[in-house]
Amino acid sequence: MSVPFHTELEAIWFGSADAPLAGFLHHPPGATRGAAIICPPFGYEEVCSHRTLRYLATRLAEQGILTLRFDYEGQASSGGESGSPDALGQWRSSVTAAIQEVRGLGMPSPAVIGVRLGAALACEALAHDAHLGPLVLWAPTTSGRRAAREFHALSLITPGSRSPGESLNVLGHPVAEQTLAQLRQWRPLEGIPSSHPVLLVESRGWRDTESTRADLTAAGIHPHIVNVPGTAEVLERDAELVTVPTQLIARIVTWVSSHAGSARMDVATVSRSSERSIDTPEGTVREELVAIPPRQLHGVLSGPEDEKCDSVVLFLNNGVAPARGPGRAWSEYARSLASSGVASLRLDLSGLGDSPDSAGPPVLVGQPVSPRAGVDTQNAIKWLRKRGYRRVVVVGLCSGGLISLLAASSGKLDAEVLVAINAPLFAPRNLGDGPPVWRLWQALTWGTHRRRVRAQLHRLPAWVWRLLDLTWVFPSPARLLTMASRHVPDVTVIYGGAAEELVDIQVRAGAHVLRLAADGVVDLRVLPGMDHSLFDPTFRQRVLEIIRDKCAVDPGFRLPLTEAGRQ
């Protein structure tokens, strides 16, 4: 996770007017001699591969390859409704729009690089457009039927997976029955010219390797094959544990670069607007791609189409996920809130999503929180205040909740409301804010975030925890909440009934936290059955209602997450 980025990155809108696509252009630092488009995988695999694909785009740009990364319609930060019955059509048209966008810049034959489902879409694009450049297939999905089976398998381990006749919930991403039916009939390899240059990227031990080769051979495709470790390290780990496979990326970059011409190509100048109107089921909202000073952090500002707002919600990253939130929750929340008169900013902290890396220690594998997280949050709030917003509501899930609580406890969170969801308060980490003693806490509590260590510590009697808290050796979660409430008028913490984070609080300071809640110092909400990542649409809706209430918005206004979220 600690790989740096150096090339110029431009956030853009492109595609249709009613459902614009969000994308990022990586501009070469010198002469441009070609172009490439990266088609990402679907759902949680896209989250896991986000930094790796950003690194790939950066390395391509360094070789003179103008590169476009983008989100499919109905996914991530792009417009369109999640779980559409015509999702496959949306994904296809998104790839076509990306190709047209790059060609509009003067690049007639861009290379197309696809990962998993993105590789299948890239194949189909080539079958309909022989003028495309070389094709890279990384762990490709070569059978629509196989993709449908994988979605169904993933839905079985997803909280709130489905009800009869409703959409599948694939790790927080809805997939409609109509889409599944289309996938089962989909043959993405048909029609690819046999002479076209194709690179197949494999890793030893990756599933479906043999069937992938067999499918390609049956379709008359004879690719150049490279077998390099790294696929499982990107696609089969929790996002926080992903390592960027630099050797694998280097092989892709070398192959694509070798097929690019040597002559300099002129990139057309395109006049762009950072703002777009996006149609939603509740109405039209406005979204603006912004850069938060002084580090030019990437963010998306949402608001009503023609209305000035007093209230704004600041959404922070959860773990290493980009600022669209878990299963696109923050994007869904932002557009629903905008339809009811509340603005919001989805912010990528330093080193996460599409923001620049931190100038200090990098974001590391297993420790996804930037040391600048607290400072970044403060700077974002200052920027929002200058834009005229008077009521700021900060929302964070998991590490985002911890970031906001730590900043608030040190008096550096200029907000009216703080909503922390499933925040891990077991051992506050040094995030560059708060009393210097926190650095001592971090040293003394090293390793306590591990489940086995926590399980043993939970056996300590209550008097030991009180002593550790009084001596500030191992402060109580109640202490952190009390400190935060001194500086933020409304501190709200939300936990699932069986959440590990809530168990930690109950063991160490359960009675004290309940007293804080009874006295109105904090607003404690326990939602039995809620999963950690808000994948269950029912609880995602309930959390939205709490946030809406904190914004003083009509609580009757509801978010149409998917059919599975409707009552």
Task: Give the name of the CATH architecture of the largest domain.
Answer: 3-Layer(aba) Sandwich
The SS-based structural class is alpha/beta
Terminal CA distance? 40 Å
Give Rg in angstroms: 24 Å
**Number of distinct helices:** 17
Average pLDDT metric: 89
How would you sum up the major sheet?
9 strands, mixed
Strand adjacency order, main sheet: 11-12-13-15-14-16-17-18-19
CATH topology of the largest domain: Rossmann fold
Mind explaining what this structure looks like?
This protein has 567 residues and is an alpha/beta fold. The protein has two domains: 8-142 and 192-259, 3-Layer(aba) Sandwich (Rossmann fold), CATH 3.40.50; 275-557, Alpha/Beta hydrolase fold, catalytic domain (Rossmann fold, 3-Layer(aba) Sandwich). Helix content is 35%, strand content 19%. The protein has 17 helices and 19 strands. The protein has helices at residues 44-62, 87-104, 117-128, 144-156, 177-184, 209-218, 231-235, 246-259, 329-339, 373-386, 399-409, 437-444, 451-457, 462-470, 477-485, 500-518, 537-550; strands spanning 8-14, 21-27, 34-39, 65-70, 111-115, 135-138, 168-170, 173-175, 198-202, 224-227, 275-280, 283-292, 297-304, 311-315, 343-347, 391-397, 417-421, 490-496, 523-527. The strands form three sheets. It has a nine-stranded mixed β-sheet, with helices on both faces. A hairpin with a 4-residue loop joins strand 12 and strand 13. Helix 10 crosses helix 11 and helix 11 packs across helix 15 (477-485). It is globular and about 75 Å long. The model is unreliable at 554-567 (pLDDT under 50).
